[in-house]
Design a protein that fits this description.
The chain is α/β, with parallel strands linked by helices. The protein is built from 13 helices and 18 strands. It has helices at residues 39-42, 56-59, 110-114, 132-143, 165-172, 195-205, 232-242, 267-276, 290-302, 305-308, 317-325, 341-358, 366-369; strands spanning 6-18, 21-28, 31-37, 50-54, 67-73, 87-89, 97-99, 123-126, 149-153, 178-182, 190-192, 210-214, 246-249, 253-254, 264-265, 282-286, 310-314, 364-365. The strands form 5 sheets. It has a 6-stranded parallel beta sheet with strand order 11-10-9-12-8-13, sandwiched between helices. A 5-stranded mixed barrel has the order 1-2-3-5-4. Helix 5 links the parallel strand 9 (149-153) and strand 10.
Length: 371
């Protein structure tokens, strides 16, 4: 049987709000706690409203930041919002709702979508963790300021894109031009039915010439070889290649990790690229001190990533500099840029490589690096 906890609460204050997201302080019994409300699903709530809250993640002490989620506004239960669409998301659940999917008949963007034939070799950077998109977008923007960059959020982790403070900041600062939510994920500038149609929408409808694909916040892990949500990186790599793009795999690298399975080159990258990928991707490696490069070489060789893919070497530092200049805060597993530099350098290197490919500049391949 599934586990779910529901409790009634009262809205005490609205901490902050932006389009399609409200952050609330709520009272449950005598406790003051935090909650998120998605107006797209439950309507706008006001101070004093009685709400029904899903408290499951907090009850189970999961990594959702200690927040509850509004299921319904009991003070205004007759909420409705009507759009032209008929494609359901959160299908066959009590909160299912319709969106005007870009692929749908009657959508004014349908004609552009129908004209899609190929990604025409544009770079598609496929990430494992949501936090990687900051370095990728900054690296691409640094190297190619005029690039049109789209972010596709898959549905393997967080489903509402408005929950991501990182995407909000990256769009606000001009690092990302358009967002697409595919599958059951929702809230992007464009809604898509699946990753293949999302890639087509990114290129033909949003006009992107660099695409970043990643799950949203809230990676799921089980300490097993295959049981992690970031495994959808391999699905994106295969889809990008099949549709005529240039698949680029962002490595999960860390020397700050205490967990052995993620130290150096994470087993996530080793499993995806060494075992599961059906296509040869470009794999950017950040320039690091020699001892760390040699250790990563052992990982890359031992997992056959060097044999299966095209490993390139790139300096990711300019991407981190740009993030600092724009005061974009990003963390991975609770660690910021200075605490886990190699992780973010790998993401920055992937973005710079994507921009270099778009500009048709030469890359430094592993065999030519001389290590």
């Amino acid at each position: 049987m599934p586990t779910i906890f529901l409790q009634r609460g009262k809205v005490l204050s609205i901490i902050k709000e932006r389009e399609n997201l409200q952050e609330l302080e709520v009272e449950i019994g005598k406790r003051k706690e935090k909650a998120y409300n998605f107006p797209q699903l439950t309507g706008i709530v006001k101070v004093g409203d009685r709400v029904l809250l899903n408290t499951t993640a907090v009850e189970l002490a999961l990594g959702t930041g200690g927040y509850h989620f509004v299921v319904a506004n009991l003070s205004n239960p007759s909420f409705s919002h009507q759009d032209k669409g008929h494609i359901m998301k959160l299908r066959y659940t009590p909160l299912q709702f319709a969106v005007f999917s870009t692929e749908e008949e009657g959508n004014p963007m349908r004609e552009a979508f129908d004209s899609f034939k190929s990604l025409r070799h544009i770079p598609v950077v496929c990430c494992i963790l949501h936090s990687q998109i900051a370095g990728v977008a900054a690296g691409a923007r640094y190297k190619h300021p005029e690039a049109k960059i789209a972010y596709i959020m898959t549905d393997s982790a967080c489903l509402p894109l408005p929950l991501s403070d990182l995407v909000y900041a990256l769009k606000k600062e001009g690092f990302i031009d358009a967002t697409i939510t595919c599958g059951q994920a929702f809230g992007g500038d464009y809604e898509a039915v699946n990753i293949y149609s999302a890639l087509a929408i990114a290129h033909k409808v949003a006009g992107a010439n660099i695409v970043i694909v990643s799950q949203g916040p809230g990676n799921v892990g089980t300490r097993t070889r295959l049981g992690f949500s970031g495994i959808d990186q391999v699905i994106a790599l295969n889809a990008a290649y099949t549709l005529g793009g240039m698949p680029i795999a962002c490595l999960r690298i860390s020397f700050a990790e205490e967990r052995l399975r993620h130290f150096g080159l994470s087993h996530h990258s080793r499993t995806i690229l060494g075992e599961l990928s059906l296509v040869s991707a470009i794999v950017p490696l950040p320039i690091l001190p020699k001892d760390k490069m040699l250790l990563l070489k052992d990982y890359l060789t031992g997992s056959d990533i060097i044999g299966r893919h095209r490993v390139v070497v790139e300096d990711g530092e300019p991407a981190l500099t740009l993030l600092r200049e724009h005061e974009i805060s990003v963390k991975t597993m609770g660690r910021g840029i200075e605490e886990d530099r190699e992780f973010f350098l790998a993401a920055g290197a992937a973005g710079i490589v994507a921009a270099k490919l778009l500009r048709k500049e030469e890359l430094t391949f592993w065999d030519d690096y001389g290590l």
